[in-house]
Amino acid sequence: MQNQDEYPDEIVLSDDELDELEEEIPLLRGIRAFAEEAVHMPWFANLGHPLDHETKALARSYLDGLGFPDAEVARIAEWEDALDAASGLDFDTAQWETEESLRAGLADEALEHLSEEGLTIALTHVSAILGKRIGAAVREAAAFADIDDDALLDAAAGAAIQAAHNAVLALIAESDSDHPFHRKFALFTRGRWPIGLAGMSFNIF
């Protein structure tokens, strides 16, 4: 029989902690389902292809929601142009600053539904499920075009994971389906890379 002294007090959860954990489980299950569905999406499968109507509509909704109604959707057709567009983001921070403000706000709202530990677990789990798939997908697409720029491929994969994290925050915060983070994530899951704003052009590879 196990001696009670082998269970130190500091690892015993209080009733309140147990109640909080039980309340979080359904939400964490929903995030797991989100990631397991996303892993089967055609990541980076349509890079450079003409932009269809739905892709343009998603991009337009994203831009309007982010506060850039005058920006135009622009197609990037080649990897070399994608490299130029991605490098140019260092000089145009308006989109990044706006997204960061939205992300911070959603993180605060998410913590009204999940504990800080629960949120960390959720985001880490999404990265664990999607990371390998996304990394392999972008390298497969690049290999088809004889591209071996690791920095560029890491940037694309990192942007996709960040979009997934932001979509999870919007999901936890119960944001509307047309929230910019849902729209941007949808662009990625349609096989595109929404690289970002350069002046008044929203570049999509």
Your description of this structure?
It is a single chain. The protein has 205 residues and is mainly α. The protein has one domain (29-204). Helices cover 61% and strands 6% of the residues. Strands 1-3-2 form a three-stranded mixed beta sheet, with helices on both faces. Helix 1 (15-38) runs parallel beside helix 5 (116-144). It is globular and about 55 Å long. The protein starts with 14 loop residues before the first helix and ends with a strand. Residues 1-13 have low confidence and may be disordered.
Concise structural overview:
By secondary structure, the protein is mostly helical.
Overall number of strands: 3
Count of domains:
1
Question: What's the main sheet like?
Answer: 3 strands, mixed
- Are there runs of 5+ residues with pLDDT below 50, and where? 1-13
Mean pLDDT: 88
Rg from alpha-carbon coordinates: 20 Å
Structural class: mainly alpha
Q: What's the arrangement of strands in the largest beta sheet? A: 1-3-2
Strand content: 5-15%
Q: How many helices does DSSP assign? A: 7
Cα separation of the termini: 63 Å
Shape: globular
How much helix is in the residues? Answer: 55-70%
SSE topology string? HHEHHHHHEE
